[in-house]
Amino acid sequence: MRVVILGSGRGSNAEAILAAEKAGRLGRARVVRILSDKPDAGILALGEKFGVPARFVDPAPFKTKLEGEGEQRFIDAVRGCEPDLVVLAGFMRVLKPGFLNAFAGKIINLHPSLLPSFPGLDGIGQAWRRGVKIAGCTVHYVTPEVDGGPILDQAAVRIEKTDTLESFTAKVHAAEHELLPAVIARLSEE
Ligand code: GAR
């Protein structure tokens, strides 16, 4: 199963996926490309570390969505990898029908909350401010409804009285680093 990872940030989840692959824990999946909409994103440095081609793709002209010329550049870049699965690992742009239809049924996203609670930006901060006691993360298929597609799997995290926003954030990230590679491995065996 050929996997393309899209991300905008530090890439800790992409690193967890690549480390799982290296350790033989990613089933029949292999990461063939890392693409980012941010030229200086940490995720791009993983390419060299793990020997996977990684590059910036210009998302212009829009700031928070992928549409128009930038969308077409991403479609071309992803299509060139002949992916079986497109993994959004901290890709902070809303995907539009052009991209979604080009890879229909093949795009999954990681979100740092127990959906359908706390969709959108800053799922961790939203859960923290709401004072929930059980939080977590979700991997789901991507559809036009933001963070609204069919759920593949979730992992729960308990917020203790002693937690701070920082310690809670670390717990969610640790849960994400287990969940996302496990879901990819499972999909690769289906
Ligand atoms: C992750 O916590 C992921 O759940 C979140 O971005 C972070 C990326 O971290 N994604 C979203 O909020 C998507 N709406 P990383 O770059 O270290 O993998």
3D architecture notes:
With 190 residues, this protein is of the alpha/beta class. It has a single domain, classed as Formyl transferase, N-terminal domain (Rossmann fold, 3-Layer(aba) Sandwich). Helices cover 35% and strands 24% of the residues. The chain has six helices and nine strands; from the N terminus they run βαβαββαββαβαββα. The protein has helices at 12-22, 46-50, 69-79, 97-102, 123-130, 165-189, and strands at 2-7, 30-36, 54-56, 65-66, 85-88, 94-95, 107-111, 134-141, 151-158. The protein has a seven-stranded mixed sheet with strand order 3-2-1-5-7-8-9, sandwiched between helices. Strands 4-6 form a two-stranded parallel sheet. Helix 1 packs across helix 6. The protein starts with a strand and ends with a helix. The model has no long low-confidence stretch (mean pLDDT 97). Bound molecules: glycinamide ribonucleotide.
The poorly predicted ranges are none
Estimated helix fraction? 25-40%
User: Cα-atom Rg, whole angstroms?
Assistant: 16 Å
Lateral arrangement of strands in the main beta sheet: 3-2-1-5-7-8-9
Treating each run of at least 4 consecutive H or I residues as one helix, how many helices? Answer: 6
Strand content: 15-25%
Write down the overall mean pLDDT: 97
Element order, helices and strands? EHEHEEHEEHEHEEH
Quickly give the CATH architecture. 3-Layer(aba) Sandwich
Which fold name is given in CATH as the topology? Rossmann fold
| Biggest beta sheet summary | 7 strands, mixed
CA-based shape: globular
Secondary structure class reads alpha/beta
